[in-house]
Design goal:
By secondary structure, this protein is of the alpha/beta class. It contains nine helices and nine strands.
Length: 326
């Protein structure tokens, strides 16, 4: 039996449903599920969105559903929804199970055994913390919308792709010792409150891939919630390399051109909403094609990514926000 706590032992305020999105990475998903089931504070349920995998993932999930320990519930949409659509569907599915928190995870993530326990303990400390009363707090305490783990690569270094941060250079709000207030974080070991989902909605499925996590977490902290980085909670992200999204030199090829077009549009669209973002992104979009040409990108790839970047400058995505059914 995996896990040190059962659902019957967990208070309602600490009831967690994990959400994992996967596509054709059966071996990595198996590691992720084993790590989730081995948590010292076990999630009540693990919801897995299988984005039309063809590598035996469905068989793995069918077997996991019958295993003892934390229940695994899989959902297979009729088409690949991308990471963004997968998390939107996963969160909506999880919300129907009545959680207090949702723990979001990529399929190539392997959390330490106490990763979830550390996030919940950080929230308990936050609730007990008596400091300066930030906005959105109750009784002088901050209202947490999400808590993010420390994400490392396979060599133990911080993962460039998954480093939480701030959207402005203003002084960050106060936080308890061992925690840091942040504006955004990634969907790699992100604990999101159900209250934030109800108030702020679901991730934007239309992003498909790239920056959907930044848009979503920043949306939460722009509402009456706070985001916190919790370094004591650790997760390994088993990507091929320790890289982030670099618009100046994207490793694009003909086979993944549309994926990079999505990422380019989304990153520009989100950054445009930062302070002075429209001006900065406008200048960047104007000079990017010349930089890409100097770095040897083909003409067809340059045209497609430039089109996507221009779309990001004008894309009004806010009307597309959906809320979970209640």
């Amino acid at each position: 039996m995996f896990g040190a706590s059962t659902d019957s032992e967990v208070p309602a305020a600490a009831r967690v449903v994990a959400v994992v999105v996967t596509h054709n990475r059966r071996a990595l998903l198996e590691q992720c599920l084993a790590a989730l089931r081995a948590q010292t504070h076990a999630p009540a349920t693990i919801v897995v969105i299988d984005n039309c995998s063809t590598d035996g993932t469905a068989q793995l999930l069918a077997g996991a559903a019958g295993d003892p320990g934390t229940p695994v519930r899989s959902v297979r949409p009729t088409e690949n929804l991308g990471g963004a659509g997968g998390f939107a569907l996963g969160i909506e599915t999880a919300m129907a199970l009545g959680p207090a928190w949702l723990w979001l995870m990529d399929d190539d993530s392997v959390p330490d055994r106490d990763a979830l326990e550390q996030l919940l303990e950080a929230h308990r400390r936050l609730d007990d913390w008596s400091g300066q009363a930030p906005r959105g707090g109750q009784g002088g305490r901050a209202k947490a919308g999400f808590l993010a783990s420390r994400v490392v690569w396979t060599d133990g270094r911080a993962h460039v792709m998954n480093t939480p941060g701030r959207m402005s250079r203003r002084r960050p709000p106060p936080a308890p010792p061992g925690m840091e207030a942040v504006d955004y974080a990634s969907f790699v070991s992100l604990l999101v409150s159900a209250a934030a989902v109800l108030e702020c909605g679901l991730p934007l499925a239309e992003f498909f891939i790239g920056s959907d996590d930044v848009e979503y977490t920043w949306r939460i902290t722009r509402a009456e919630f706070r985001g916190y980085y919790v370094p004591a909670s650790r997760v390994a992200h088993l990507t091929a390399g320790n890289t982030g999204m670099d618009l100046w030199n994207p490793p694009v090829s003909a086979g993944d051109l549309e994926k990079w077009a999505c990422k380019t549009r989304n990153l520009v669209a989100v950054n445009r909403r930062r302070p002075w973002g429209w001006l900065r992104e406008g200048v960047r979009v104007a000079v990017l094609p010349a930089v890409w040409r100097l770095r040897g990108m083909g003409a067809g790839e340059r045209r497609r990514l430039a089109q996507a970047a221009r779309e990001g400058l004008t894309w009004a995505y806010e009307p597309l926000i959906r809320f979970p059914r209640q």
